Amino acid sequence: QVQLVESGGGLVQPGGSLRLSCAASGFTFSTYYMSWVRQAPGKGLEWVSSIYSDGSNTYYPDSVKGRFTISRDNAKNTLYLQMNSLKSEDTAVYYCAKGIENGMDYWGQGTQVTVSS
Question: What confidence tens digit (pLDDT) does each residue in 9-36 have?
C-alpha cells in the first residue's frame, strides 16, 4: 500500500530555514509527479510545490517562489522541501502528496511547521 511519511517540521524563527523530507513506499516513486501542500490553521489546503518524476521540472506558486525548493532522490524514494526565509504566514501542517493538481491521490500524515519568534 502507498505510504508517505513526512518529517523535518518544527519551530523556527522568522527568516530561518527548515528542510522537510517525505519517505515514500508502496508505489514506483520514480514514475510519479510529487507535490507538497499545506494547511494553515483555519484555512483550506494550499498547493506549495510540485516536481516532475525525474526532477527536471519544478513548479511553485508566487507565495513561495524564490524561497522554497522542491527536490527528490529517486534512488532513496524521498521527496524534499527546502524552505528558506520563512515567514509567519508559512506556519501550517505540510503534507507530501503523490501526483499533481487534481491527480493527487495519496497524502502523508503531515508535519507541523511553526514560524514564530
Answer: 999 999 999 999 999 999 999 999 999 9
Q: Which residue has the cell 511553526?
A: 114
Concatenating the DSSP letter of every residue in the chain gives --EEEEE--EEE-TT--EEEEEEEESS-GGGS-EEEEEE-TTS-EEEEEEE-TTSS-EE--TTTTTTEEEEEETTTTEEEEEE-S--GGG-EEEEEEESSGGG--EE---EEEEE--
Place of cell 502507498: 2
The residues with which 1 forms a beta bridge, in sequence order, are: none
Q: What pLDDT shows up at residue 103?
A: 87
